[in-house]
Design brief:
With 284 residues, this protein is mainly β. The protein has four helices and 16 strands.
Length: 284
């Protein structure tokens, strides 16, 4: 997890801990009955997330609207975290705010396969990017999520009664504008391919398998050769879309047309009885 470079004290005062990270990071004391043994300075969650006290927004070294702020919120593996703060997003720019919920064990270590339940029953909106890929999300009857939600699943806690999920404009910004941190672990490559078939009027079926995209995760620099022989250099995390040569024919040269005119004109090469293939079958 990212090391905190900010700390929130009781009452909402934020103090900078220095450093040159492009992210403003706070880690909250939200696990193990508020006795988290996680690394780094811990921020006080009582006012902002648990409505204990009177949180009316942050003071002190408050991140600007140009900063991406990350709230690290560890949750004990297998437990339930209930957010009851009245105005948890007051004073923060929603479109650059990330709420990072993740499971930890009793020693404060991240549990990759762990799970937890996240219950939101805030008095007003929880605004920003709510990142809880290992969380079962339960939405209460007051307030709303406003922005993006990622979780294992989502439902209303008091089904069939529930509230709407709002988008970013409800939080007074157009969309998420921050940058999600990249895991600086081992390089990981994912390739997406598509198999396409075309059948001529003469009965010939042509099949091609093409690479549509390759995603490479930091830290690595890789050179990829595309279908047409050109190369693309990928640094850090990037998705490279590789053109299907048939798509280029359709879109750029318009040989196919709406009625497949290329094949209609060229069918004569094969003959109605596919004699070319009949003669050459011995090669196969």
């Amino acid at each position: 997890m990212m090391t905190p470079n900010l700390v929130m004290r009781e009452g909402g005062e934020i103090v900078s801990l220095g450093g040159d990270s492009p992210y403003k990071v706070m880690t909250f004391n939200t696990c193990n009955d508020r006795n988290c043994p996680v690394d780094g300075a811990l921020s006080d969650p009582t006012g902002i997330f648990f409505n204990d006290g009177n949180f009316n927004g942050p003071s002190g070294d408050v991140p600007s609207q140009d900063d991406t702020i990350v709230f690290n919120i560890p949750v004990t593996d297998g437990s339930t975290l209930r957010l009851t703060g009245n105005q948890p997003s007051q004073g923060f720019y929603a479109c650059r705010t990330i709420y990072n919920f993740y499971p930890v064990n009793e020693d404060g270590q991240f549990v990759p396969g762990g799970t937890f339940t996240l219950v939101r029953e805030t008095g007003s909106q929880l605004e920003g990017f709510s990142l809880a890929p290992r969380g079962h999300i339960r939405d209460g009857l007051t307030g709303n999520f406003a922005g993006t939600i990622i979780g294992l699943d989502y439902t209303w806690e008091y089904f069939p009664q529930g509230v709407e999920i709002h988008d970013y404009p409800a939080a007074n910004c157009a969309n998420f504008q921050g940058c999600l941190p990249i895991n600086p672990g081992s390089p990981n490559t994912t390739t997406t391919t598509t198999t396409t078939s075309r059948t001529t009027d003469g009965g010939l079926t042509v099949t091609a398998t093409t690479t549509n995209s390759i995603t490479i995760t930091k830290p690595t620099t890789t050179t990829i050769t595309e279908n047409d022989g050109t190369t693309v250099t990928v640094t850090d995390q990037e998705t490279v879309y590789i053109n299907d040569p048939w798509e280029d024919e359709w879109k750029k040269k318009k040989k196919w047309g709406k009625k497949g005119s290329k094949w209609e004109k060229d069918d004569s090469k094969w003959g109605k009885d596919d004699s070319k293939w009949e003669k050459d079958d011995s090669e196969w």
